[in-house]
Specification:
binds magnesium ion, 491 residues, binds adenosine monophosphate, alpha+beta, 6-stranded antiparallel beta sheet
């Protein structure tokens, strides 16, 4: 079926996902909006994708004009949410327009989020509000600048319509770019229907797209599981290195590609607290900062269950092989975490005491509620032989002093020069993160039509390792009254 909306400039879309059987998707056009207006456009990402900012960009990325070559569809998926299985979720407010091959030869999905109802909308309106859209834009771009694998934001478009949440709020559409939008929940959708052919077709698609080396393994679907487990373990370790809490790391928000996806009630830590949660609906700490490796392992175990039928004809053999992967995950997570912590602490070699050194620093930070980002940034100064001052002043506690002495001793035995070490640390420890209170302030202003705070924050988070004068205001932790205690699901 051809798109029925007015056509815009053609884009060189491909459609490998749409070549999967019809049970994988619903063919559906975006629902046009009243008055599309660009809020943000990511020229650098557009260039990477071979797209230019056309005069009708607002119409195209709101879904009012479907580019020739697009084949809009909503993807089917299921998912465990807060531990409860929902056999059908699916793209209830997102529409995949097609795949583009970027300048590096990588296949990327272009999806419009908030683009109107689909067969998967249940009681939802298929729409998104400006706050959550700009929030995802900011945080995903911050994650990218921090070198954390993530979906990207190409454009945010105001719709000129209201959506109703607690009250009426301005609506918006986010044009999102991802390596793919395939989730653990996509596998669960077919497994829950005992559709082994569907699971196998999906697994073959994912292997071809993300893990071509797995095709040559003795057991390709086991190799797929292991590759995903390793990538997800590494991803969550990176979250912890930068102090990120996803907030709703459910199986429908766990990608097969290993990219971070779905920025809802997510946030970065200010003061270090391993038990921190941000989601207003997370009372049990399921999604807390420190619980994320265990949580992602749980999600990958759900993926393993869906793959059992295709891993081996013999159920016992399949179960033993898949279990071995899940049992290995904590060690992969710990190793990825420790590697990154060594980089943050300026250690270029590995020694037995390094794990304790990193953990004891965190404990000393927790005890005095020290700011996670600023402490590591201050340590860059210490490594350079300067006593950090002002904003970067280190906490004064006996535990902290004792830790500093141990770290200094450890560094004395590390082969790098002071200058090399300080430079490496400054590239591993960001000065600027999208602090919650700053994000909140930017979104409140944007809702009222003032995009200046959003643009200033976006410019700062795009250069997170730069602590020049322009960065200073964005480095400041919140005053007690500015603390944003909860963030809400991205509805
Ligand atoms: P999320 O919380 O964004 O990960 O979404 C979870 C599920 O709810 C997905 O199936 C979404 O498509 C669906 N959903 C969330 N918000 C809406 C909405 N406003 N309209 C329709 N479906 C929605
Ligand atoms: Mg989701």
């Amino acid at each position: 079926m051809e798109p029925s909306l007015p056509a815009a400039t053609a884009l060189p879309f491909e459609h490998t996902y749409a070549q999967l059987p019809a049970k994988f998707w619903q063919r559906v056009d975006p629902t046009p909006v009243k008055a599309p207006r660009l809020l943000a456009f990511n020229d650098a990402l557009a260039t990477e994708l071979g797209i230019t900012r056309a005069a009708d960009a607002a119409e195209v990325f709101a879904g009012n004009k479907v580019p020739a070559g697009a084949l809009p569809l909503a993807m089917a998926y299921a998912g465990h949410q807060f531990g409860h299985f929902v056999p059908q979720l699916g793209d209830g407010r997102a529409i995949l327009m097609g795949e583009l091959i970027d300048r590096h030869g990588q296949r990327r999905d272009l999806q419009l989020k908030g683009s109107g109802p689909t067969a998967f909308s249940r009681n939802g309106d298929g729409r998104a509000a400006i706050g959550p859209v700009l929030r995802e834009y900011l945080i995903s771009e911050a994650m990218h600048a921090l070198a954390v694998p993530t979906t990207r934001s190409l454009a945010a478009v105001a719709t000129g319509e209201h959506v109703f949440r607690d009250g009426p709020v301005p609506g918006a559409v986010l044009a999102r770019v991802a390596a793919s939008h395939i989730r653990v929940g996509t596998f669960q959708y077919f497994a829950a229907r005992r559709d082994t052919d569907g699971v196998r077709q999906l697994a073959d698609h994912v292997i071809a797209r993300h893990y071509p080396e797995a095709a040559h393994a003795a057991r390709p679907y086991l190799a797929l599981l292991e590759a995903v487990a390793r990538r997800q373990a590494a991803l969550v370790a990176q979250w912890q290195h930068v102090g990120f809490i996803h907030g709703v790391m459910n199986t429908d928000n766990t990608t097969l590609s290993g990219e971070t996806i779905d920025y809802g009630p997510c946030a970065f830590l200010d003061d270090y607290d391993p038990g921190k949660v941000f989601s207003s609906i997370d009372r049990a700490g399921r999604y807390s900062f420190a619980n994320q490796p265990a949580l992602v392992r749980w999600n990958v175990a759900r993926l393993a269950e869906t793959l059992l039928a295709v891993i081996d004809d013999d159920g016992e053999t399949a179960l033993a092989a898949a279990s071995a992967v899940i049992e290995a995950m904590p060690a992969w997570s710990a190793a990825a975490w420790l590697d990154g912590m060594r980089a943050k602490l300026g250690l270029s070699t590995a020694e037995d005491g390094d794990e304790a050194l990193a953990k004891d620093l965190l404990e000393a930070m927790h005890a005095v509620a020290a700011d996670y980002t600023l402490v590591f940034r201050a340590l860059c100064d210490v490594a350079a032989g300067r006593e950090p001052e002002g904003l970067l002043s280190l906490p004064r506690s006996p535990a902290f002093e004792a830790w500093r002495a141990r770290w200094a001793e450890r560094l004395a035995g590390d082969p790098r020069t002071v200058a090399e070490r300080a430079a490496a640390m400054r590239a591993a420890n960001p000065a600027v993160i999208p602090r919650n209170h700053r994000v909140h302030e930017a979104l409140v202003a944007a809702e009222q039509g003032d995009l200046a705070p959003f643009e200033a924050l976006l410019a700062a988070i795009r250069r997170p390792f730069d602590d020049g004068p322009q960065a200073q205001p964005f480095m400041v932790p919140p005053e007690p009254a500015q603390r944003v205690l909860q963030t809400f699901c991205g509805t």
